[in-house]
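User: I'm curious what two different proteins look like when written out as structure tokens. Can you demonstrate?

Assistant: Sure. I'll show them one after the other, since each token string lines up with its own sequence. Here's the first protein:
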Amino acid sequence: MSTLRNDIQAAYECYQKAVDISPTIAYELIQVLKQENISYVVAPYEPDAQMTFLALRKHVDAVITDELMTQM
């Protein structure tokens, strides 16, 4: 079981390194959302609690973040 946990941790760390939401990507996404008339919210600082609240209460269909703080 320890090997599986190590594999999961290693995969998680690689995923974190691979995901990078740059300001350019965020801007381009916002432009597409505007074109498609899709509502969105941009959280300015550390929005983890707010995003969790909105997702758990089903006020949003998706959450995108560049910083995943979940502990495995």
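Here's a second, unrelated protein for contrast:
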Amino acid sequence: MDKFLTKNKVKDRSKCAVNVSAKNRARSMPQVLHEDDGILFCSICNVSIDHTCKSTIDNHLKSKSHLKRKHEIDSEQSTKKSLASGSAAKQSRVEVITDWIKACTVADIPLEKSDNPALREFFHKHVKNGGAIPQSSQLRDSYFSDVYENERTLVKQKTGHHC
């Protein structure tokens, strides 16, 4: 008789799907799911999902369409990151070049010394972004005038004179 009584036991209410709201499901996976007006949505695919059955959610997350869309979004984000890092690399490169021009100017070193093979090897080996320093002709043509104008402006500001 005890055998039959165990079958009629009331199940644990926390495991019942009717007690799980769309908001609770969304909280369990906030980066993938969101809730709006009691309806559960996949944030990646922007489709509604039945929140009462966890297997429905799991099946959607494993579906080809969801995985394809997620891959597309990840690719877009990685492209944006690489573009941002590319601009940071360019900024770092320009900073090394302008600092080199300033150092040469202050130390009264001709920019042609940048073409020396031993100095170029030293740059590549020991200076971060040292390979970014171009030949002297490009230093003069592309960067020197900007460095000169910036330094001239700084001198004007410090001295209060207008040249």
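A detail about the second structure: Residues 2-63 form one domain.
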